[in-house]
User: Fold SIMPL domain-containing protein from Roseomonas haemaphysalidis.
Amino acid sequence: MLRCPTPRSALAALAVLAPLAALAPTAQAQTGTQTGTPPAATTTTAPGETLLRLSEAGEVSRAPNELRLDLRAEARGTEAAAVQAQVNRAVQGALERAKAVSGVRASTTGYWTNREGPPNRAWVASQRIALRGSDPAPLLELAGALQSQGLALDNMSWTLSREETQAARQQAGKLAIDQLRARAAAVAEQLGMEVAGIRQISLDAPEPPMPRMAMAMRAEARPAPPPAAAPEDVTVTANVTAEVVLRAK
Assistant:
């Protein structure tokens, strides 16, 4: 069997990450987010062919279009029932107030009650409420009002909507595939060969990490001004790995 050696320097420069789409009719595509190891591929090639393994990455940036605020209602006291009742009233009031604000979506998360150790032995109850919206102005104004009522702002994060995330992942995948095709053609030309096809290809387009601003702002007795929020672009990355078959011209 005749194999054409592949220069180590050329292959080393190609080890980068990226997403998917069919590169050639012979490609076997795997779409979607993958966290495991790509399936093993056979290494048999026809006489005069060389198997080239490449990886590339595509990256796009998008301005976030959704804001999430996580607030917390908390109470301490000598009786478990009393502190839980206080938290329940605070959260119910926050939900009612959020319903009155157009464009704001409210939901509750973790609820816990615990007793502190000596010397106080006080009961502590806490529950979180998450606020989401595409228009930051009324959302931030609502958060400031809830802070004035005793809730603490734990976290603020900018996100992409599901539709924007999907569109960005598709574009990042296309960029990665275009780069991989160009790289494969360049390596083939350097070796005096041509691309015969793509034998196997895999895509990894993970959910993008969201810019966060961690905080724990406790309310004061006087009215609290609305919190400030400056959005940061979200980076979406897609990784593609492929086995490219080269043949002699």
